[in-house]
Amino acid sequence: MHSHGPNSSSVTDRRFGRRSLIKAIGAGAAAVSFSTLTQGVARAEEEMFIDAIIIGAGYAGGTVARDLARKGMSSLVLEAKDRIGGRIFTGSWAGESVEIGGQWVAAQHNLVNAELTRYGIKTYMDPEPNRVMVADGTAGAIKAVTPTEATNILKPLWTEFYKGSEQYFERPNTPLYRKDLLAAVDPLTLADRFKQMGLAATDLAQLTGEAAVYSGGSSSLGSLTGMAQWYQLSGGTYESYSTLIGRRPEGGMTRLLQSMITESKATVRFNSPVAKVTDSGSRVVVETTAGRRYAARVVIVCTAVNVWKNITFAPGLPKAHTQLMTQGMDVPHGTKMWLQIKGSKVDATTGTAPEGSGILMMVPQKQLADRRLMIAFPGPGLNVNDPAAVQAAVRQWIPGAEVLESRAMEWAKDPYTGSWGYRKVNQLLQTFPQIEQPHGRILFAGADIAHGWHGAFIEGAVESGKRAAKQALALA
Ligand SMILES: Cc1cc2nc3c(=O)[nH]c(=O)nc-3n(C[C@H](O)[C@H](O)[C@H](O)COP(=O)(O)OP(=O)(O)OC[C@H]3O[C@@H](n4cnc5c(N)ncnc54)[C@H](O)[C@@H]3O)c2cc1C
Questions:
Q1: Would 203 disulfide with which of 199, 213, 260, 302, CB 3.0-4.6 Å?
Q2: Angle, CA 73 vertex, CA 279 and CA 54 arms, to 5°
């Protein structure tokens, strides 16, 4: 991957036919600079005309760039941040590689696994938990049990929770296949489903934490169809759903995306937030917040739905897009916290705590010589910047734990990504499949709007990127 500095001169399609552009930019992009391309060309309104402009260098954008390159189409990727990855961000902490955003890839993620194989990237497993926290009574308390005891408590409850999803998501990769049955389910929140079940208070408390994590802090925010579709995609059993967490690519989550972008030979411009996209019918002009302009035959918007509102689209977006953008698809609270807990043998603790708890979910990470790394997903009530509050919350999970250091990424506050996506009620039937359709020469991709593993999985970003690349090829 490479990027160009801000001094590129102007190029227009009036001087470069499509064929010569592909030749010049596509195959040899790494060697050809914009200034080479522009030699002798009078300055015109756009800096560059290219086959495709991709907005966003996350997994969806990287997939589009790579798939287009394989079909001979060149692309320019405009990325608001100074790095690739978006909601994937491999960093290092305590001398270890840590994922600040998305971390796990499941065996069921067929597209991602095919990509890992393609680039020769192996996977490994996080440490197995030896201690699971479950609800203890109704007042938010939790207690430790063994993994087997936890399964005995949770399996019947979750199995009941998802009852019927094997019918309304009979084909979970084609979510609208049983539109008839979905009509009764799409309006329900996760909390509505809990009410339907008529659970005793302690049983309810076993389930609310996980629902609250995925749907953004409260089980009343997200749709039942969100988790129910993931459950069926995973294989439709408590055991299959449990395998979604734990498996990681060697070298970190950014590595695969880097491989895809490198293969694409796309030009990536960092620190280039897009402000405006104008489709004139035969070409699309893209303008950054800094006023730089580029033109292409087709533009693929590969950002989170919540940040579409930062871009002015002309003509204006269709109804389904406007609805999703206004309602939002990314969770309003989605924070991931890394902890270093003192001790040479800190229990590998996992589990969930009832909605309203300071920490809703924990996942054990590597035991180092004198400390264990842990991941926590806090609820909206915990001030993650207050070390004393963090320590107190952790002690509910691990009595007497000493938190040496903690670091939280409050993704919902990130202006360019927001946090992971999770569908709200009625969004499935009201906006699919329209949301996947081209808006003239403007196309949309991203995990949020995937029809399979939507929202919280790079698998969805890859799926939607593949679909958008096909649409772009048909239009170009
Ligand atoms: C805390 C957390 C944990 C997660 N855990 C997992 C997990 O374990 N496994 C998993 O598979 N997935 C996980 N996910 C979800 C996964 O990270 C996302 O679904 C996926 O990365 C989204 O990819 P994307 O390409 O659709 O969007 P993004 O990653 O959001 O990429 C979009 C890119 O567009 C850029 N952008 C936005 N606006 C503009 C603009 N106007 N101009 C130019 N560029 C712009 C952004 O900076 C960003 O780089 C997690 C996410 C989070 C936040």
A1: 199
A2: 50
Residue 420 Cα to ligand 1 midpoint, Å, equals 7
Ligand 1 binding pocket mutation candidate from 105, 300, 419, 420 (most atoms within 8 A of CB): 420
Write the pLDDT tens digit of every residue in 181-220.
999 999 999 999 999 999 999 999 999 999 999 999 999 9
- HSE, CB side, 13 Å, CA atoms: give it for residue 346: 30
Buried b (16+ CB within 10 A) or exposed e, 84-97: bbbbbbbeeeeeeb
CA distance 257 to 101: 14
pLDDT at 42 > cutoff 50:
no
Ligand 1 centre to CA of 62 (Å) is 11
Residue 328 has pLDDT above 80, yes or no: yes
Query: What are the tens digits of pLDDT across the range 232-258?
Result: 999 999 999 999 999 999 999 999 999
In the structure, which protein residues have their CB atom closer than 6 angstroms to any atom of ligand 1? 55-61, 78-81, 86-88, 101-105, 273-274, 302-304, 307, 310-311, 334, 336, 411, 416-417, 419-420, 446-447, 456-458, 460-461
Question: Using 50, 70 and 90 to split pLDDT, how confident is the model at 65?
Answer: very high
> Is residue 354 scored above 60 in pLDDT?
yes
Superfamily of domain 18-86+253-329+420-475 in the CATH hierarchy:
FAD/NAD(P)-binding domain (3.50.50.60)
What pLDDT does 11 receive? 28
How far lies 226's CA from each of 77, 197, 277, 383, in Å?
Answer: 30, 18, 31, 27
Task: Give the DSSP letter of residue 68.
Answer: H
Check: CATH 3.90.660.10 for 127-244+331-416? yes
pLDDT at 137 (0 to 100): 83
All CATH 3.50.50.60 domain ranges in the chain, comma separated: 18-86+253-329+420-475
Q: How confident is the model at residue 476 (pLDDT cuts 50, 70, 90)?
A: confident
> With contact defined as beta carbons under 8 Å apart, do 97 and 104 qualify?
no
- Tally of CB atoms within 10 A around 151: 15
The percentage of the chain sitting over the pLDDT mark of 70, rounded to a whole number, equals 90
Question: Which part of the chain has CATH 3.90.660.10?
Answer: 127-244+331-416
Distances (CA, A) of 52 to 66, 75, 80, 270: 12, 5, 17, 17
What residue owns the CA closest to ligand 1's atom 14?
Answer: 102
Q: How many A from CA of 217 to the centre of ligand 1?
A: 19
The answer to whether residue 10 scores a pLDDT higher than 90 is no
Of all protein residues, whose CA lies closest to atom 7 belonging to ligand 1? 102
